[in-house]
Amino acid sequence: MGDPGSEKKADINGAAVGASPCLEPQDPWALPDLQDQGVKWSDLGSAQKVHRVLLGLAKALALLGLLYLFICSLDFLSTAFRLVGGKTAGKVMSQNEVLKNPVVGLMIGVLSTVLVQSSSTSSSIIITMVGAGLVEVRDAIPIIMGANIGTSVTNTIVSLMQSSERNEFRRAFAAATVHDMFNWLTVIILLPLEAAFGILYHLTSAIVDSAKWTTNKHANKDFLQVLTKPFTGLIIKLDKKVIQQIAIGDESYYNHSLIKRCCNMTADGCVKPCEFALQSLQWQDSFIGLLLLGISLLTLCTCLILMVKLLHSMLRGRIAVIIKTTVNAEYRFPYSILVGYVAIGIGCIMTILVQSSSIFTSALTPLAGIGVISLERIYPLTLGSNIGTTTTGILAALAADAGQIRYTLQIAFCHLFFNLLGILMFYPIPYTRLPIHLAKMLGNTTAKYRWFSIMYLICMFIVFPATVFGLSMAGMIVFMAVLIPVFVLLVAVVAINVLQRKVPLFLPECLRTWMWLPEWMRSLDPLDRIVNSCVGRVACCQKLCPPQSAHNGAILPIREVSSQMNFVESRRSSCPSGDSQTDLQAFENSAFNWTKEKQNGVTFITPL
């Protein structure tokens, strides 16, 4: 038998030497091979060719129709959130005293944008407040930063619609959260610098003072509404100035409805009432908002499901080859450098055309999920979208009164240069593209624990900002006493994690792993067991809370071998022959160590 420590046991592809290397673990981030399963064009008859062409045209028209409904559903979603929380957002923004704290201003920007579901709306409100002299430019800069963060909540919600397939959900969630990661990293660096030195304030002040600006009342154009307003106006119409007037402190608007029921008001009263489907409902704004929220979410889910199915059926064969060779192509130097910047330009132009970064990035999310666009290509498109969305604020600033245009333009330029500085920090050098790596970490976590996506959405966009805002209301002493220790602890944990991965020998032996901590402090598994036990039996929640495992989430038989190593046994068919193969996936026993060695495409584990 020999020394058991010298025996080699296969890690994957079976236990025998010489097993086929075709079963090497696949990269979950690799785009799927979109192969044509149909008959070749040359083998089709005349009638079949006509049928295929007509079917392709019908699918293309159906896709355009679904995309239109998808955009309209996002508009309804934004309207619903405004009806439910728009007045609250206006009142929150009118808290002038607490806005002196930059961290509080940041969180108010996040909460306000989540409540109105539109960074364009929240930034326009901020610009209106600056123009009215209620908020100084310095105090408004953190709110603009928060609005930039809050705008990414929409595409994160959209990514949840692809939770039924694990790898699609992984890619879609990462594509949605890469926007979050970029915004948060930029804020973490620029907010302290802005509070200490006023970088954005002085930069934009110099730019505004360098030229003479004139008011343009017709500058604020919304290109997308030319297409969507005829349909959305049939369902509901809003009076957008109500939130703005509440934000600037006009108490007379507190009891005004956000729903626009009169389209022509004179001194004698309403001459022409507005006509739309929900006009006859005399409910409170919040109840109508909840009804519209349900309708918009149902429409959004239906459109996304049908769009994904259509894209799956259309993106095969020659079309798939064209997409892979254009959208995700890797070009030689120096053209490889230019591709990303071209993508940034495309993202900027498309967002300017639709006047909404949420719509553009939400349309990209399902494409990333099904594997049409890689995360590395989504990233520059998202950065371009961040730049494009600032044009809404600039146009709104140009429409301000002549006496206030300097201040409104300055805060609008702060929004623009916030994104430009973020791009300079996290894009030109490949090693600095941290948002991609962080988004992949979130995607992997969500693929294993699908309920994590809901928890992330609630905590990141509601609980965390609301907690910080609540602490600020308790006073500066309480605020700093809680925030500083939490921040120091977070920085220490991140630093130790980096050292554990890069240079573990620099750390004391007790800090080289987190195994000494209780399981609930270093793993999501205990919470996963609780969530599964609570909602795992509910049919509608089973997609978000499937049984998990150490490997791929399926329920796999676990067996122990004499060498004290645990193996997870699974079956898959990934060879060209289609034969079912048995995989042995090894995972660590805490009392056992080994070394890995690869021979002929097979990885072996040698016990120490």
Automatic annotation (TrEMBL):
Instruction: Fetch the InterPro entries from UniProt.
Output: Na/Pi_transpt (IPR003841)
> Under which name does UniProt file this protein?
Na/Pi-cotransporter
Q: Does the keyword Cell membrane apply?
A: yes
Q: Which family does it belong to?
A: Belongs to the SLC34A transporter family.
The molecular function terms in GO held by this entry are: sodium:phosphate symporter activity
Q: Which residues cross the membrane?
A: 60-84, 104-134, 140-161, 182-203, 287-312, 333-354, 407-429, 449-471, 477-499
Q: Which organism is it from?
A: Ornithodoros erraticus
Keyword field? Cell membrane, Membrane, Transmembrane, Transmembrane helix
Q: Name one GO biological process term.
A: sodium-dependent phosphate transport
Q: Where in the cell is it found?
A: Apical cell membrane
Q: How does it sit in the membrane?
A: Multi-pass membrane protein
